[in-house]
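Quality-control log, excerpt.
Job 1 of 2 completed; input and output follow.
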Amino acid sequence: MPLVASCATVGMLLAGLPASAVAVGTTRAAASDASSSTTATITPSADTTLQTWTSEKNSSMASKPYIGALQGPSQGVFGEKFESTDAADTTDLKTGLLTFDLSAYDHAPDSATFAMTYLGYRGNPTATDTDTIKVTPVDTTVCTNNATDCGANVATGATKPKFSINDSSFVAESKPFEYGTTVYAGDAITVVPANTKKVTVDVTEIVRQQFAEGKKVITLAVGETKKTEVRFASSEGATSLNGATADMAPKLTVSVSAKDDLKPSADTTLQAWASEKNEKKNTAAYIGALQPEGDYGDFGEKFKSTDVHDVTDAKMGLMTFDLSDYTAAPEHSILTLTYLGYAGADKTATATDKVKVVAVDTSRCTGTAPCDPDNATWANRPDFEVTDTTKTATSHAFAYGSKKYSDGMTVESGNAKKVLLDVSDVIKAEFAKFGTGATEKKITLALGELNKSDMRFGSKEVTSLTGATEAMQPTLSVTKKPKAYTLSIEGPTKVKYQKGEAFDKAGLVVKVTSTADGTVKTLTEGNGEDNYTIDTSAFDSASIGVYPITVKYNKDPEIAASFNAYVIASVEDGGDGDTSKDDWLWYKQPASRTDATATAGGNYGNPDNNRWQQTTLPFGNGKIGGTVWGEVSRERVTFNEETLWTGGPGSSTSYNGGNNETKGQNGATLRALNKQLANGAETVNPGNLTGGENAAEQGNYLNWGDIYLDYGFNDTTVTEYRRDLNLSKGKADVTFKHDGVTYTREYFASNPDNVMVARLTASKAGKLNFNVSMPTNTNYSKTGETTTVKGDTLTVKGALGNNGLLYNSQIKVVLDNGEGTLSEGSDGASLKVSDAKAVTLYIAAATDYKQKYPSYRTGETAAAVNTRVAKVVQAAANKGYTAVKKAHIDDHSAIYDRVKIDLGQSDHSSEGAVATDALLKAYQRGSATTAQKRELETLVYKYGRYLTIGSSRENSQLPSNLQGIWSVTAGDNAHGNTPWGSDFHMNVNLQMNYWPTYSANMGELAEPLIEYVEGLVKPGRVTAKVYAGAETTNPETTPIGKGEGYMAHTENTAYGWTAPGQSFSWGWSPAAVPWILQNVYEAYEYSGDPALLDRVYALLKEESHFYVNYMLHKAGSSSGDRLTTGVAYSPEQGPLGTDGNTYESSLVWQMLNDAIEAAKAKGDPDRLVGNTTDCSTDNWAKNDNGNFTDANANRSWSCAKSLLKPIEVGDSGQIKEWYFEGALGKKKDGSAISGYQADNQHRHMSHLLGLFPGDLITIDNSEYMDAAKTSLRYRCFKGNVLQSNTGWAIGQRINSWARTGDGNTTYQLVELQLKNAMYANLFDYHAPFQIDGNFGNTSGVDEMLLQSNSTFTDTDGKKYVNYTNILPALPDAWAGGSVSGLVARGNFTVGTTWKNGKATEVKLTSNKGKQAAVKITAGGAQNYEVKNGDTAVNAKVVTNADGASLLVFDTTAGTTYTITKKASANVPVTGVTVTGANTATAGDTVTLTATVAPANATDKSVTWSTSDAAVATVNANGVVTTKKAGKVTITATSNGDKTKFGSIEITVSAATVPVTSVTVAGDAAMTVDGEQTLTATVAPANATDKTVTWKSSDATVATVDANGKVVAKKAGEVTITATAGDVSGTLKITVSDKAPTVIPVQSVTVTGKQELVEGASTTLTATVAPADATDKTVTWKSSDESVATVDKDGVVTAKKAGTVTITATAGGVSGTLHITVTAKPVETVPVTSVEVTVEAGTTVSVGKTLQATATVKPGNATNKKVTWKSSDESIATVDANGVITAKKAGKVVITATSTDGTDKSGSVEITVTDETKPTPDHKSVKADTGDVTAGKTGTVTEPKDVAGWKSRSIIKQGKLGKAEIADGTLVYAAGDKTGDDSFVVQYTMADGTVIDVTYSVTVKAAETGKNDGDGKGDGVAKTGAAVGTLAGLGLMLLAVGVSVVMIRRKRSA
């Protein structure tokens, strides 16, 4: 079948495009110059007439044969003001209403004409008189009289569209038409066609605007202009009226051409205000326009200034559009802007403005630098003039609206208006300027506005605003002029070629068709005008691909057509081989249907982002990564590339890694604070040890975007769905069946070929059809982004708007065996695959990033990056899918398969296997089987290794970040959309990422981390200089190890961002470098590589030098006798600015320890190790300049290390976190430590880094280890209950507990992490997703099974450093299993098999030939022997003081040694005896001992069991945990002989609840022989022992029996005591000789205040009557203590507003008082002054308005409202908002008066001028004010020009300070920032002249070291006559105690 292609077809066609490329897309669309347009006529979907005469107004006229229009009196052209429903109302109006449905059109027509047929009139007009009709669009969902629908099919005169007509309304009008002689007498008229008229209206602008607003169903209202009723045929009338014809129906005729939507390649706003004129705004979210005051042109083009003191406010937008692919000017060009709001003074919402556009030449600039939008500023911008002949375009008027623009605004789509400009003529004029053959056709448009208002529109970066979309970017919609001919192609015969075959055009038939008459002619190839030429230059037979072959018509070479030629290769699908033993994550549903209900966490409130982190499956090659959603109809792979980062160089012109030199002061700040600490301060204020304030400079890691595979079918029809991730082979797969076809998708990222591969198949030929696209993430700004399709390759490229980083991604699509076709997608931004069976996509991406300080760029051009990426995809395609896949699997498996672990788990191929999400749920719910639990535990462990391989390879440029390499969020600035910027966080997170790398046998994958740390040195040297004064000469060229030191802190990026953060609490962490150096040193410890040692030593050497010489100091009294690191914080809790802490000292100790080890390994080449001779903290004494007082004192590494003393044990037995800590969380005096997390559960364990990952606290140091366990228990438990935490924090706890040897607690934490911190895709979460927790898990399991960090000292004192410890923390749950491939320090590869909790075999491979020292924790080294094959190895057993033992033997590199239990003769067990406590309290643990007889029995192991687990459980070590009261038998059964066992019965008693209080109640007075029974209340109610015993202090006065019965014996006082649980309560009783006469209380009267204010107190009085009542004791009670409380003395305290009853009771009689509590009044702050200013000046013309502003002081005044008053309303009025309206010429005083009762007022005199009369002069004067110190206030000297002024006011304030008129004196109060500033004061002179004086002032930094004692710094002297005046004034003021700050006037040249 011949291949047919034409300009009008889609498919294989790439029509009408230049042969070089098919350009599509985001910025440039298809450049087809052969365009055709279609014209269509659309009839109304409904039409009617709205009639208002009497009852007609309530009836629909939709069925009438006419459409009428009649304008009524004062009701508007469309009757829009009439809204009556009164049937008696006789107002006669008619309005036509017609609806047209244009939903079939993708974009607005080029033209739209509305036409109706005029039938006649009603009334008595003259036949030759004329009328016109007007048309406007209406919204049929907004109706009068609360109707819900007023469409043309139902609307009436009463319920109709509700609208108004104003300046911003879109109204179109017809040409006049004559009434004629036909009277529309009624619906029975006969229509005479000759008497009808066509009345047309051009509604193009209306339709375009409707489309721009997303409305394609358009309803038009029709009115007439002469108040004469006219009637037109309706849709019904065209068929129902006599004589009418169908063509008389209303219609809308539209012309539609193919349209391209172009986005700007660059845009910006030029801003003229002060210093803004030198600022670039090309990354702002807005394009602004503001015409300056004065005659400067609509664009401000006449205002040219570079003066930063000039405060003229103006804005000009610039937008560049690239039309390079267009050979001719477009026929139509429409610019669409999205109006976001205005800035500046408030506007009336309905007032309007217009914007205007003109083309400008960016090669002609007002300055000398480039002035294109990426570089232009107001000071250096396009230089242009606008004349009468200049082509411009002006928008329709649009209303300001009520929304104001702000940079942090949320854009609401309903408030964003579309503003359209027809720029066709502008574009055509620019095309006329392009020379013949011009290849670059970029047109830059300038934007101005016409009403001097600051208008803001969406820029290409608008999506950085919340709620904004790409549709709000500027868009240039262009359509091309149709060509005279179209070209079509048939053939050629051959379009698919094997590699090496030449192109063959045989069978090619080319035809040309006239667009005018349709005639067709067949062309022949040749050079004549009527021939065609064929371009095959793109064809490359040596490379797999699709190549466009282009045919051109010689008569007009722009008329062209193309077809694709394919170079193909057969593909063998190598398959996956046996996968039954592979490790899988697998699911039965796509990501969108997988449970995502776990905690989302910060920045993941977006449901789409949250679903990504919880359900998608990751794969990567260390450079690029993807996450698979597995969606059926529209597959999505979220794409990442490791170097796509914002921030750094290019983000600002002064990027310096975030360092703030003003704060750091070259170390002076730190030295001063350390001096305070050394002098005994417990803490200092470290607020200036911060930096990194610029979020744009800091930047963050970006999600690149998504790859979409759009299959276009319905998900619900899918069966046999499976989505999986094969960890063993590093690939993801999706499989399902749809409509009888099985579809598969395979994804992997190859490191050898650096490509991502997607392999897509269908089980039936021709059934694979999809579109592939790769849009970038919309949340970061871009410049010049383009999406292009060329042949088989989709390219997306551009530059980041934030920093200019170039990016480029390409997808090359290869059809298996050439089966199927490729074409450009209809959206111009995708590739379409049709009728294929198998397709391979090769995806590559890159940027021009390079980790090279200070540029961080490769130096490539965009073209070079494009070529680099193209070579990658082409090379992969040429290599072929099978070979690429094999290379990938070989590469991935070579690392992944190194480690195997078997804990008896089930797997994906086991019977009854469950999907991963179901497995996780079962584990979390406790329903998983034992084998399933082991499956999940091992799967998560292996997943951590898989994620390391995917995110950090030996050839990665950067280490894995907070999310590895995978991210879905993006944004220009740090601390924005992406959690923690997905950065390199170095206060635990980056370190944790690499914890498992060495032990899990992936050591080479840490190379990017080591390179990254090396990359921190040069920028870190700058930070060390700024904050610590450590200045390296030539920091960029000095080799590592030779500098003074380097610094980095918590947050680190790809660009040397080494500064502290903007908050000390999380941002200052210099110990981050010593910590990350642990990871670096471990690379050498594990590998023993001498080349690595050289690199590691250099890093350690320089940083150790830095700490020893710049950071360490003698501790102050708060931190004891030691060296500390000075100002510190313990991440992330506790007090700020302590004198060091355990966190920092532990890390520095470890660094020095590692540095010493590294130096010794090299032979101490620099003699820095030293010793401890004459070692004292005094050796670190420094003078104020930071120099050591004793230059020769011993400050060696060994000395410094010995003086750090990082570990101290506190009063609670804990490791202290701060050296002033006593008991846990308390200071030594018992007071609380500020900022300490009271529940002890803080996620960070900063003080325990010596335990893990350090070597400071080990199992061989029992004192520290016991304290560490205590701290761990506090941090991890409440009582005996393990507490949850963030995922990474649990990961750290797993590792730390493993180091203690407590396997069971460690395992509990493993369980906790899997239950509480794991998403369905097994990503660990904080929340949100944070990959370090995954790595923490893997490292922790390694630590449970193998450790090698401790030092063993035998009984002879010999040390075995980093010995290998087998099964150091094996939990009972993993009693049997095996692991192989783990690595111990010294480069030993270790495999272990164990059973019943003890090692049965250890395989140890020596990779470096070092001596092996092996401890077998579970089994005892003394019981094992070593063999090399069958040959016994001489291994000695050494023991330490604790009785632990090591096997020590020499090894040969490359040899594997087997360690097994020694063989011995079997000695049978004869008995088992169990001993231990036989009583316990519930909750206790009891350790039992099983003694097996005889002592030399071969198998002395036992199995423990319990008779009743509800009472007590027992673990494998005989540890009994009691649960509740009862008796239980614990049995130990011999494993060697099950018939031998021993038991013990334990009696468990209930847990004791202690008594806390005993309260005794009864009468305090008795008479002799009287009796009473007292009550004793024991608390708490559930106390274990509530038995009460009674005792009398004097039985002669009164006795008490066992029941509390008291008998009075004689007069006196006695104390009765009740005791329970060792706690007592008492009652003191007075016994009288005889019973007194009891006089009962008759009344109690309560008196006192009955109204109180919240917080107030009053004392009430209770009067008891009669006065001689026997018992006048009063008790008080409040009816509602939340409102008011009352104490025993009647003192009432009001708590909150409400009413309360206070009751006083005496002798059983009560009295009450009702009290009302009112809310506490807000403290009133009175107004002290009111200042009135008018920013626009104090002169106004008659009829104009001014805005006056009243500034009320103080700023916190309670009532800041003012009233306004005019002194003469005949001259000017002022409204309640301060708007002044000028009435007639004259002067008037406008006064604002406070309303808070203070009657403070301020006023301004306004001059009203009549433009018809002469006006006073208005002059401008500039005055140089001089300098003022930041934070000070200076008096301003006013120039002579204004001497004798009549009135003055400040009309424009500065930006760095504020001008004020204080007590008649003009002063300037400077703020904290320094720089040049200006403000404007307007003076009105006696003759009416107005003078605006612009005062320039320089705010300078405070001079240090100078102070005159007044606390404000020195004044500044003046010269000349002014000196005497000001000095004299100063002396007079000083004489009366007033301080004066003078401003020095700059000397004139």
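Job 2 of 2 completed; input and output follow.
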Amino acid sequence: MPKRNDIKSILIIGAGPIVIGQACEFDYSGSQACKILKEEGYRIILINSNPATIMTDPDFADATYIEPITPEMVKKIIIKEKPDALLPTMGGQTALNTAMDLAESGTLKKYNVELIGASLNAIKKAEDRELFKSAMIKIGLITPKGVLAENKKEADEALKEIGLPLIIRPSFTLGGTGGGIAYNKDEFDSIVTSGIDASPVNSVLIEESIIGWKEYEMEVVRDKSDNVIIICSIENIDPMGIHTGDSITVAPALTLTDKEYQMMRNASIAILREIGVETGGSNVQFAINPDDGRMVVIEMNPRVSRSSALASKATGFPIAKVAARLSVGYTLDEIKNDITKTTPASFEPTLDYIVTKIPRFAFEKFKGAENTLTSAMKSVGETMAIGRTFQESFQKALRSIETDLDGFNNIKIPGYKNESDKTPIAAALSRPTPERILYVAQAFREGFNIKEIFDCCKIDPWFLSQIEEIINIESSIKISGLPNNYDQLQFIKSKGFSDNRIANLLEIDPKIVRSLRNKLIVKPNYKRIDSCAGEFNSKTPYLYSTYEENNKNGFSDESEVSNRKKIIILGGGPNRIGQGIEFDYCCVHAAYSLSSQGYETIMINCNPETVSTDYDTSDRLYFEPLTEEDVLEIIEKENSKGLLKGCIVQYGGQTPLKLAKSLSESNIPIIGTSPDMIDLAEDRERFQKLLKKLKLKQPPNGICHSANEAVKIAVKIGYPVLVRPSYVLGGRAMEIIHNEESLIQYINSIVTLFGKNPILIDRFLSDAIEVDVDVIADKNISKVAGIMEHIEEAGVHSGDSACTIPPHSLPKKTIKEIEKQSNTLAKALKVIGLMNIQFAVKDIEQKEPKIYILEVNPRASRTIPFVAKATGNQFAGIAARVMSGEKLSNFKILPWHKTDKISVKEAVFPFGRFPGVDTLLGPEMKSTGEAMGLAENFGQAFAKAQMAVGSYLPKKGTLFISVKDSDKIKVLPLCKSLLDLGFSIIATKGTSIYLENNNLKVKKINKVSEGRPHLVDAIKDGLVNIIFNTTEGEQSIKESFSLRRAALSAHIPYYTTLAGSKAATEAIISLNKDDLKVKSIQSY
């Protein structure tokens, strides 16, 4: 059936900011949908509040609304744009829930908007636990025994009926939010309460536990003519009980019999037909009892999901692209396979390789977080690796995850002292944690056998036997030493061993292994992902490396290196806190802009969720680990023909920067700012000399390697001090320290974590305003791309602070001086491309405010996408061309301050997923993503940014306030403004006396330590609508911890800085004055 012509315009709902459970895989699917449907000639209207995604670039849609994704805001866009159809399946749970709300409220019917991609009926049937269960019974499939509960009483009845342990799954939520596994009554009570609260329809499914069963997923696509294909099967190495997003997975499924696979395939197709998904991709999850083969259906997603991105990258089948075309009437047989260019999309993909996905976690960022993995997702990113065998693929994945692994590194098992007591090993194996797979390998080293390990962890014996073989090979390497012939070394490399791992086992320099490999000509071959296991020729250079035996059997290398002029772009690897999608955005723009200039662009990356690893983003894609060995091998291969102009290492965050030194040593050209200048900015002593020479200020500081040296420096510069290890990203392990005892404790723990790297100590500038500046430069000139004023005071990591362009309170003279200093630095560091500088401005109310430089990064920063959207300049693309040798003066750049809009960026945090963790912000970054608010005044822009991250400012109600002494005088005008709007105020003793003395009406309330009823009771009873709470000193921070957690649970806007409280007040005043308006970025 050809495409529909009765539809002219389509509204696509994006996924909003990156959060745990809904990451950049929806940036990938949404971008694909916009691109394809626009190519098909439809007018595309997009709503997405995320500035970091390439999807919200103005060229991806005809009208791009960077607005909060709420039913009210989408309704305003519908009234304004009058779309014919709405596509809700490309923006994760956010888009589905919003579309359902609009359909059920009658908005879509009223404005004649048709839901495409999935019907309301299908969404309900798949997402509503009770309806889904009935549908499964109807087609003869079994689901785990379960009861739907809408309140605590019904939940207790279900508990009696089913018995513990239990799995609790909230309806219509994301990444298992609010759910979990209950082994006892206490856990049951707490998970049921959080689950009912997390579910938008306030219901949870209470289900029998099938923990320990094997878990599988099927990625399925169906069209209107009932053509159904399985894109791929995915097997979780971890058994049931762990959220599939947190499990290590492989594709295709490896331990199913053909009979079981066919059963699962038939069930998947029957489910899609029954649910009524007829235009697009769906994901179906199954569990199989390893004892008797009983199969149950866990759930299905009637939309493109996290696994769809993985399945797309694993097979080369672009699920989102195909689903977008199906949604407008095409059938699978009418769509051509991009990779082979000969077969239709109805041709089921076949894999002749193994794909491994390993999740990346960030528990180290959240003190007090429990690292046990459950049915609620906690990972912040993932990596994927491809090999010809499971062992090759798995060891490549381990070194891709960037947690300092070269393979199955040795690991200390907690509590294990001697061989006579093996219980700590069994304990480590039976608790699912991110390290468990390494404990499995360690258990083999300690003499455990497959059965003993299986009994503890329930990982399938086939996987265990594969790991055991790797450990046996390690032992033989240790005994026999470095192999001196081709066959032995080739065999070891074909099992996925990196040069580093071999060197580690033999305690030698990895360079020795590398030179032996070169001497014996043990080299990787590059194969193509072709979606058909070599049956048809692949026209798309989507490549992976393998050491599969090649000279005897004559297997070919499929790289087909070209004679063109080429530039290699190194990506950012797996998403993590501090290095997210913003860097991928920069890499994608580099590929687009350099390809347009005639260069062959070559992308190296290993993140399956992102746009950079799409086979049509760059001219060639290597899906490979970003390690020195893997990258140098690719460069050597590409260097064999054509002209390599150079590598871009400044766009992928810290990951490629770590490789800059070894690339330089191997005489590989690096384009843009030189690695020496990048190092100068990181090297505290060299940087200090430069600032002295330029007569620029820096906070008093020092550098040390031990607690002794640290104490001397702190005494000299004065407390509080800001301390951190060097060469890290995202403020990793950065802390503000107030006394000597804490400083000694900190230094000792850091030395064990980060080893030899020097530790940096600065005088902490309290009450300063932090400012972020992005600069673009070539050899001759530099221009300020944007100046952002942070809303939180200095001391909160720049990635966690809300910020605004143009600055909200800085005097014009200060802005001019910041511009001048920025250009001076760009010239001194010979910047070619992008640079980010962080300033702190102190004594702003005085005639001559003091400007300090906190740090300089001569590379792309995480603020670049936000600055691009705020100013209308595509800096990442322009800078890539400047790095390749073009002049900056050739580009028309709009001045950053001449804008008719205010842009506010706000961070989004995962605290809800980590019970027991304090939500107080500090110098270590904790946010997973960001949203943007755009409006014509600051109040409205700030209110929109808050809304976009799920914090709804009240127009009236009750303010609770408790502030430190130095802030009391400054909160008076805020309190007065809110009282004038009709708010009532409650406050703790000290603050209430102060407000009363200043003639403001206030009611006193107890602190938690002062007896009940206290403040937390009032929050739980819904008597508080907004909180301003600033603290100082450890005691006061500890005391207010329960208050912060209660506010988080009750979804109450909570501001812990004076500047944040001030911004919120301004936004509330603005909301009371005017309704929020929507405006596309193209119309500013």
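Post-run check on job 2. Residues 71 and 940 are 18 Å apart (CA to CA).
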